From TrEMBL:
Biological processes per GO annotation: fatty acid beta-oxidation using acyl-CoA dehydrogenase; fatty-acyl-CoA biosynthetic process
Organism whose genome encodes this protein: Leucobacter komagatae
Family: Belongs to the acyl-CoA dehydrogenase family.
Domain Acyl-CoA dehydrogenase/oxidase N-terminal stretches: 16-127
Stated name of the protein: Glutaryl-CoA dehydrogenase
Domain Acyl-CoA oxidase/dehydrogenase middle: 132-222
Domain of life: Bacteria
Named cofactor requirement(s): FAD
Length: 387
């Protein structure tokens, strides 16, 4: 009798009944809704946008926020949902993050009560899709080089600039655009996508995250009312607080991708025979599976620890960087080793592993590269910024 990954390390032993219910709900959605179509969506370079209202229907968008029709679930519950979505595909979990952690998070943390009332209930239901416009073509990991500008013209703001690698913008109804005002201070603006001068174009030539939607945005004399500004956001610390919400979700999510790869490798080790016996009977394969599982289990425990710290209000930027850096790095290693165990068939769509490998390279880059998080951790250890 074999033991499944969930049985060997059962996260249900460490979470509440409500958190487990969220996880199982997300797992059922991922397995019945996302998995049957994700390989074709990846091939077609298409985000399954038809599923987004269903995600809203069961309450996953902005699920850890309170009020405005949102569920007020724990951060651990959100992490478990992110993990189950990413076990299906990193691109779909990214949509959850862009909508729920970044776009909704910015309005929830820094918006006026009118902005919250206008957008959060509809976004929570998946009836309005949002984006988060921070990254620029020349900026990458250094958003302080921001060129997008916001100037006052009477009782209006006028925005000009470009953004790149912005999730969901071509299908969104609203977004949060970050721009420098005339004093050089970074401010956030709520921008309906129907506003004249706003243009979003999908980035098509991706070899990773193909079942997701990233875009370029051009802002040409986009005029907004004075109350479009996020009153609580002033300086780069505001978008960074939103990014940390997304980075937290990544620490959980990539463990879903790692688990999916591990499950494929374990199953293959039991069924593929070479030299007259299943490859799982070979010591070297068992050693590889054991080492990968240990890293998966450590990553899960780290994500859980971060979740408990977050729910207690004690999670720091440095701790989030530890989670993002370690778990993405280990998930990539696990995916690569599992691909090797699957042999040549591992590069085909018969298995999800190569898709996860490609996707995880994008996850490694966005929300802070490995190098950025190493420098964050180094600053925490030494007290010296080396950026």
């Amino acid at each position: 009798m074999t033991t499944t990954i969930d049985q060997l390390f059962n996260v249900a032993d460490f979470v509440t009944e409500e958190e487990r219910e969220w996880q199982l709900k997300a797992r059922e959605f991922a397995q019945t809704k996302i998995n049957p179509i994700i390989d074709q969506a990846f091939e077609d370079r298409r985000l399954p946008v038809e599923l987004l209202p269903e995600v809203g229907e069961f309450g996953a968008f902005g699920m850890y926020m309170n009020g405005y029709g949102l569920r007020g679930a724990s951060s651990v519950a959100y992490g478990l949902v992110a993990m189950e979505f990413e076990a299906a595909d990193s691109g779909f979990r990214t949509a959850l993050s862009v909508q729920g952690s970044l776009a909704m998070g910015a309005i929830y943390k820094f918006g006026s009560e009118e902005q919250k009332q206008q957008w959060l209930p509809a976004m929570g239901r998946g009836e309005a899709i949002g984006f988060f416009g921070l990254t620029e073509p020349q900026g990458g990991s250094d958003p302080n080089t921001m060129l997008t500008s916001a100037r006052r013209d009477g009782d209006q703001w006028v925005l000009n600039g470009k953004k790149r690698w912005i999730g969901l913008a071509t299908i969104a109804q609203v977004g949060v655009i970050w721009a420098k005002d005339e004093e050089g201070v970074v401010r956030g603006f709520v921008v309906p996508t129907e506003t004249e001068g706003f243009k979003a174009t999908a980035i098509e030539n991706k070899l990773s995250m193909r079942a997701s939607l990233q875009t370029e945005i051009e802002l040409t004399d986009v005029r907004l009312p004075a109350d479009a500004i996020l009153p609580g956001a002033k300086g780069l610390s505001a978008p960074f607080k939103c990014l940390n919400e997304a980075r937290y979700g990544i620490a959980w999510g990539v463990m879903g991708a790692a688990r999916s790869c591990l499950e494929a490798a374990v199953e293959r080790s039991q069924t593929r025979e070479v030299f007259g016996a299943p490859i799982g009977s070979k010591q070297i394969i068992q050693a590889q599976l054991a080492d990968m599982f240990v890293e998966y289990e450590k990553g899960m425990l780290l994500a859980l620890h971060l979740g408990r710290l977050k729910d207690a209000g004690n999670l720091t930027y440095g701790q989030i960087s530890v989670g993002k850096l370690n778990n993405v790095r280990e998930a990539i290693k696990i995916a690569g080793q599992c691909r090797s165990i699957l042999g040549g068939d591992g590069i085909t769509s018969d298995f999800p592993v190569m898709r996860h490998m490609a996707n995880l390279e994008s996850v490694r880059t966005y929300e802070g590269t490995d190098e950025v998080h190493q420098l964050v951790i180094g600053r925490e250890l030494t007290g010296i910024a080396a950026f």
